Amino acid sequence: MKKTLLACALALATLHPAFAQSAEGHPDWPGAGQLFAGANYQPVDRTLEQVRYDVGLMKQSGFKVVRMGDLSWDYFEPADGKFDFKHFDAVMDIVHAAGIKVILDIPGLPAPMWLHHKYPGVDITNQAGTRLAPAERYMDNIGDPNYRRLAMRMADTLTKRYAKHPALLAVGYDNEIGNGFMSYSEADRKRFVEWLKKRYGNVEALNKAWATQRWSRRIGSWDEVRLPYADGPGPAERYLDLRRFWSDVTIATLGDLEAVRKKNAPNKPVLSNYWDWSGRRGFDFLGSYRQHTTYGAMGFYAGDPINGGWEAALIKGGMTTPTWFNEFAAGGGGSYGSKGWSRMWAHFVLLMGGQAAVAWTFNSHLGGEEQALMGLIDHDDRPSWRLTEWADIAASYAKLEKLGFPRKVEPKVAIAYSFENVHATSPNGPSNTARQYIKTPYLKQAHGGFEPLLKDNIDVAVIKLSYEDLSRYRLIILPGMYLLDKASTDAVRKFVADGGTVIMTAQSAKVNDNNQWHNTPLPGQLTDVFGLRTNEFYDWTGTVKLGDEEIKTSIAHFEVLEPSTAQVMARFTNFDGNPPAITVNSFGKGKAIYVATPAQPEIMRPLLRQLYAGLGIEPGPKTPDGVFARAVDGRVLYVNTNNAPVDVAIDGAMNGVLSGKRFNGTLRLEARGADLIEK
């Protein structure tokens, strides 16, 4: 079996360098024909008798994987340099005896209390200069050299011990890394200065990048540099570099752990539970994932299909490997009392190229920060209805994995996203006056471009433009890319010149790499590509005439476009002079489309549907609102995210693989139901 999987992996590796890097290095790659349902498990406060009971329930439920080790540093290392693996050794053996595989998460966060007491530099210092005790998890300064040294020692010790254990499937790093805090100690300031020196070289270049000639902010020497505030006033340029600095610290920490894995467990893939979009710190995952991961993996707590689908695409990036949802709400919603919720989303993620759903968590916690977060078994160790539902998920996955799953996702459409743009458009990112301009949050624009594609059942990649091979795509959408750095700008220019099509929306390409407005016509450095310049803007809700369709916009903002070589595709009909609403320009072999409004479904949906046929983009199966579907090896998987039954038109008589029912012309999906139909 291993030889067959490896042969498949090596064949796929020729398709893309990112896949080649991950698949060739991992003979145990859990690829085609394997789906995994399981649970997160914390054995730290379970006796071995209780562990045997728990694992017996897991086996009985058909679970194939558990994720363990996260959040447990002092369980393995209760005192500095004194490791204790006796209990976990037994846990690993019990799990293996049940035929269950293990994702071993290196517990670099949170750091133990003994580490904070011995090395106070690991404490967080807030921006007022107060050193804080580690009152909650993730209050660890991961930039501190002692933290990094000891986190690597923990990783080295743990991976050496379990690298060859037969239960080990994969390794993960630092649960929810990205959700930690930035720190403001003097040592952090000095590390920030060293980072600036590498980036800018000298103080004169720093002054130019930070526009310190404005408002008497000139810096005379490196000693005068202070850490910018993340929360509070401050120039946009400095704030952006603060975020970049901490992103690089996070990526370096991941790099430490990846170096340890490559040394001790080179044949095991990486499945980390990332939280790169966390507002606390976050990091540039889409610009770094090839350095530290094999699979996109994340905690999945979807509130609705648009948010859930977006996050699933975001964590996949340009990867060709399947996605792991290795922390997954066990019961549903905020109440954890919604039957069918987990089952629905466990099937929804399969549409997005998912390979695993791992429930958080197996046991309901008696103490700590998540006491009321219900697990698969109740606080009194009684199996709950949630365990029954997850057993149903495991049984469904066992059927589906033989029928073309995990689904291979090869998008022809991509949406541009960047860590820098997120923070350039955040409340502290732009200048005081720019905040009056950026009234549409960046994520709202991103969703505005994503939603119509998701509802048309089309695969979408979310990518950093300068990090990917853009030739894989036929259409790229740039929704509200206020900061479009030089590398991304050059990538867009080449993509269009080589025959690609791009759609850029309002509020894009306004500032350069340093978060300063371009001193050229806008969109910066791309006016010839789009064949126009943008000028003034109005807070105005417009009516747009696109073909025969009259569209009323929902966002009160539009830019006045001044076409040069661009042709007008649509105009505003309720504004003086009927200015252009959408233009298209031929550049090289490709097309560049500019939308004068922020990205919103009302505009993007009809525009995209005009483009599909010409670009060879085929929508997926037609579905009612709230129902999503993908074709897989001649079958179609449907997922109903509505809280009521829905009838879906199908072509003739079909069999429901999951339901065991026969349908003729109409597929009946129950509330939150899913089915795979075939002839």
TrEMBL record:
Gene3D superfamilies: 3.40.50.880, Glycosidases (3.20.20.80). InterPro entries: Beta_galactosidase_Trimer (IPR013738), Class_I_gatase-like (IPR029062), GH (IPR017853), Glyco_hydro_42 (IPR003476), Glyco_hydro_42_N (IPR013529). It catalyses: Hydrolysis of terminal non-reducing beta-D-galactose residues in beta-D-galactosides. GO terms for molecular function: beta-galactosidase activity. Residues 41-388 form the Glycoside hydrolase family 42 N-terminal domain. Its EC number is 3.2.1.23. It is an enzyme of class 3 (hydrolase). Residues 1-20 form the signal peptide. It holds the Pfam family Glyco_hydro_42M. Keywords: Glycosidase, Hydrolase, Metal-binding, Signal, Zinc. Residues 412-616 form the Beta-galactosidase trimerisation domain. PANTHER family: BETA-GALACTOSIDASE GANA, BETA-GALACTOSIDASE YESZ. Belongs to the glycosyl hydrolase 42 family. This is beta-galactosidase. It comes from Roseateles saccharophilus (Pseudomonas saccharophila). The lineage of its organism: Bacteria, Pseudomonadati, Pseudomonadota, Betaproteobacteria, Burkholderiales.
